[in-house]
Amino acid sequence: MKRAAQLVVLLAWLPVFFLLWLVFVGTFSLHELLVGTIATFLAMVGMVVVTVEYPARFSPRLSDVLACWRLPWYLISGTSEVWLVAAKDLLGIERAASVFRVAPFRAGTKDDPHASARRSLAVIYTTVAPNFIVLGVNTSNQKMLFHQIKRSSVPKMTEQLGAQQ
Fold it and tell me: Phi and psi of 55, rounded to 5°?
């Protein structure tokens, strides 16, 4: 993206930041409007610095985006798994395991926009389910670290995005 186009995109965020400030404070007092202007300016400066220093390279493929079709089932099954584990733990039937796991993950390279999108979508989609929390994907050793309340297999959706059992 050229510098002029980047500047236009960044400037488009100014009213959004100010509107978010107004929603946050819930008033139109003069001092809040002044502080909001300063906060908006600081948010804009922060966004410019991050954009210049760490440009986002996010270019998902359609198949990666459409992997989310499995999310409703993972929400239902994950919620029921959490409730079942909690009930068993409360009743003293079986203690909750709570495990950290590492799974191989085709993470690609840091500079590949498609791999970056795949990693991001894998983290977002997998963490939506309440029984999985992805802590990160390491590109240097091609691994995904996640937490589970009860050990189970890696979701098919996450496998489609690059994880392996």
Answer: -65, 135
Q: Which stretches within the chain are classed as H helix? A: 3-25, 30-53, 62-65, 71-91, 113-128, 156-160
Chain-centre distance for alpha carbon 132: 13
Q: Are 116 and 129 in contact (CB under 8 A)?
A: no
Cβ atoms < 10 Å from Cβ of 145: 15
d(CA 104, CA 81) in angstroms, rounded, equals 24
pLDDT single digits (tens) 133-144:
999 999 999 999
CB 100 within 8 A of CB 145: yes
pLDDT tens digits for 23-66? 999 989 999 999 999 999 998 888 888 877 777 778 889 999 99
pTM attached to this predicted model: 0.70
How far is residue 155's CA from residue 134's CA, in Å, rounded to a whole number?
12
Residue 71 sits at φ, ψ, to 5 deg, of -55, -45
The whole-angstrom separation of Cα 106 and Cα 165 is: 12
Task: Summarize the confidence of residues 86-91 as an average pLDDT.
Answer: 93
**68 to each of 62, 122, 128, 138, how far by Cα in Å?**
11, 10, 10, 22
